[in-house]
Amino acid sequence: MGKIAIFQESNSTQPQKPHILCSPRDSVSLSIAESDSRHFHALIADHAKDATDVYQLCQDWPNFRVASDGTTQAIPLLTLRVTIFPYQGLSIGLSFLHVAVDGPAFHHFVKSWASICKGQDFDGPTPVHDRTVVRDPNGLESTILQLQWSMAGPINFGSEPISKRLADMVRATFELSKAQIEGLKSWARAESPHFSSFVAVCSLVWVCFIKSREGEGGNGKGSEVCCFAFAADCRKRLGYPMPAGYFGNCLAFCHAVVEKGELLGGDGVIVGMKATGKRVGEAEDEPLKETAEWASVWKKYKERGVVFAVAGSPRLGAYDVDFGWGRPIKTDVIHIDSGSLFSLGESRNENGGIEVGLALSTAHMARFVAVWEQTLNLFSC
């Protein structure tokens, strides 16, 4: 496994384009730990629990190397931790840098690895590492790099203890059955017959989040805008053939903006569906429409504290990974503890269901649960 290398000349204010460097001596940092078996069932539970608990399942990021002249940083791309819970099970914690691969590529890697461990041939597409298959006729690369560097801070993993950064934070999983999702879409069908499960569920979570946050005094007036951000896989949307096994990042940044007062209204979920669905439709036709501005857009709404974003997708198939011990009992996306991010994945219990992961302060989580249950009852979901 290689490293990401960032080179910056001494007389330059911005680094050069990052590169992935590989050498015969490269390896992946692996740690093996043992935990009390009693913790196993607490960790796989869906109810709210201390947000710091899951971090024991992931390895601290190893120190990165800096060249003697101080101009080049070499940062590991992947770390692994296997935690054994005697007589109960084990956990495989994977941490990776998104700069190297996106979610579809990373899950492709994990499924390939699992198939090899199981002694089977992986029936997925062969990985393609050639970055030149992604065309850039409009020269977006330099624009994106410039915007990215203007936003980037110093690279400093683990600068603040997790226990301090996540004090009073809890995380929980909310499962929606296929019947509940279909009920939500059926309720909204009078407005549009074409709302997808992704649009319906994301809008539901977005509105419940905004409403539950009002208990903390809100965040500005009802006329203030709220931003929902998501990523779209572009492998089949660029207008030319892309290898199904492209191993890298091929995502488009998308966002929907709605006035907060509209989301707080009785038709808030419908309003959210319309805004999100409109942007999803635009991404089908023009996936790179917002690419040149995405960094500045994200920065603007993030600084105003009005952005809410989703990580993951039910299409990634996290529960399809099998190392030879059967399907996972529980999968979690760890990095959702910013208070403005939630995860989305397929249900482990039924096809067509969806799991939502969320991390909030203890008080905010209690309000979210109340709003969530009230909203589902309203829609008879």
TrEMBL record:
<keyword id="KW-0808">Transferase</keyword>
<protein>
    <submittedName>
        <fullName>Coumaroyl-CoA:anthocyanidin 3-O-glucoside-6''-O-coumaroyltransferase 2-like</fullName>
    </submittedName>
</protein>
<keyword id="KW-0012">Acyltransferase</keyword>
<dbReference type="Pfam" id="PF02458">
    <property type="entry name" value="Transferase"/>
</dbReference>
<dbReference type="InterPro" id="IPR023213">
    <property type="entry name" value="CAT-like_dom_sf"/>
</dbReference>
<dbReference type="InterPro" id="IPR051504">
    <property type="entry name" value="Plant_metabolite_acyltrans"/>
</dbReference>
<dbReference type="GO" id="GO:0016747">
    <property type="term" value="F:acyltransferase activity, transferring groups other than amino-acyl groups"/>
</dbReference>
